[in-house]
Design goal:
alpha+beta, 4 helices, single chain, three-stranded antiparallel sheet
């Protein structure tokens, strides 16, 4: 039996504004308490592309679904990976936080594993660009 999501592990409201060219800006600070990293605070003004999926996967899954808070935290970890806030953070650890956050949001298992597999398979490109 799965555990119920603990929404208290998220802080703030996920309020986004379209920035153009497939990007969104966070209007208010937002955060997530990860078992592995502690509080992850995403500042207002952070820019994200939300959930990136290859073309065929977009047909099967909406990219604007319940995983969005987890996707914003994940994008932030990718961008801040080399910063002092998360020294030594690995791509694998950032991807595991994404999976953890989706589980806390109550994203169905098949969907969260699809998104997790997607970042494990395709996230190397974004990680390498840091």
């Amino acid at each position: 039996m799965g555990s119920r999501p603990d929404r208290r592990r998220f802080s703030g409201r996920l309020r986004l504004e379209w920035s153009g060219s497939r990007t969104w800006s966070l209007l208010e600070p937002f955060g997530f308490h990860s078992a592995a990293l502690g509080w992850i605070s995403v500042p207002a003004g952070f820019t994200t592309d939300l959930t990136s999926l290859p073309g065929l996967a977009r047909l099967a899954y909406r990219v604007d679904g319940g995983q969005l808070p987890a996707a914003v935290v994940h994008d932030y970890l990718y961008v801040r990976a080399s910063a002092e806030a998360y020294p030594g953070l690995t791509r694998r650890a950032a991807d595991r936080v994404f999976l953890e956050a989706m589980r806390e949001l109550g994203v169905p298992r098949a969907r969260r594993w699809l998104f997790y597999a997607g970042v494990r398979l395709g996230g190397w490109r974004a990680w390498r660009e840091l």
